[in-house]
Every structure is written in structure tokens, then in C-alpha cells.
Design a protein that fits this description.
The protein is an alpha+beta fold. It is built from 7 helices and 4 strands. The strands form 2 sheets. Strands 1-2 form a two-stranded antiparallel ribbon. It has a two-stranded parallel sheet with strand order 3-4. It is globular and about 50 Å long. The mean pLDDT is 92.
């Protein structure tokens, strides 16, 4: 869909093609790892519930005690606002926030839009930089 929407914008199409090429160059993950990730992180939601066990350590939002800024792409279903907010709220730090990013055409994959999008570069990254600078 992104390719079709990008066809009239040469810059968007170039970024889309680069993201697609990068995605095709990825090394496939082992099947068992992918299965465990899907089960533990998505179906059982263990990390967000604070019940993901890595070795002998249980981790979750209670394990994150550093200042945290999440960027949520509202055009993507990978990590929607309604999933991210409860995690942020459950963290022990009061220094956490969320920036909503509406997504854009020409990013290839919406969950990469914050890294590859022109609108993200112009509008969201300054907010991220300001948030970081205010904590130095």
C-alpha cells in the first residue's frame, strides 16, 4: 500500500525502496525464537504484565526505572497507543512520556516511519531532541 501511495512522490518512493531493500536483506531469525517471541510478547503479553522471565530474572515495566520516551505511530498496529500507555503508566519512574506520530506515506513500513519519514524528521525528532536535552 505504501508503494502505491508513494508513486507520485519520487523522494517518498526512494525511501520506500530503500526500506524494502533493507527488509529483504535481513537475516531470517531462527523459527524457535520467533515462535517464543510471538507467544511470550504478543499472545501472552508477559513483558507488559511484568512476568517475562529471562534466565532467573523476571522483567516488565517495573524493571524500567530510567527516564523513558515512547513514540507511538498511530498509523501502525505493531505497538498502538492503547498498548504502550499502560506499560508507561506501570513504570516506577515518573519521568516517562509518549509522543504520538501520525505516520506518513513513503516510509515503507509504518513502524519504521519515525526513523525514515520526512515528517518525522521535521516534526517529531525536534520534540525528541528537546525531551533529551531537558534531562541533561
Amino acid at each position: 500500500m505504501d508503494a502505491a501511495l508513494s508513486v507520485t512522490d519520487s523522494h517518498a518512493m526512494e525511501i520506500h525502496a530503500r526500506v524494502e531493500r533493507w527488509a529483504l536483506d535481513e537475516v531470517p531469525l531462527p523459527g524457535k525464537l520467533v515462535h517464543q517471541l510471538i507467544e511470550w510478547l504478543y499472545r501472552e503479553n508477559l513483558f507488559c504484565q511484568g512476568a517475562l522471565k529471562i534466565g532467573s530474572t523476571v522483567i516488565g515495566p517495573q524493571s524500567v526505572s530510567v527516564p523513558t520516551l515512547a513514540v507511538v505511530n498511530t498509523a501502525d498496529d505493531i505497538a498502538p497507543f492503547d498498548s504502550v500507555k499502560p506499560f508507561i503508566d506501570a513504570m516506577p519512574t515518573s519521568d516517562a512520556g509518549i509522543i504520538e506520530y501520525p505516520g506518513e506515506v513513503g516510509v515503507g513500513l509504518q513502524h519504521l516511519g519515525i526513523l525514515t519519514g520526512r515528517e518525522a524528521l521535521a516534526q517529531v525528532r525536534p520534540d525528541i531532541t528537546s525531551w533529551i536535552d531537558s534531562r541533561r
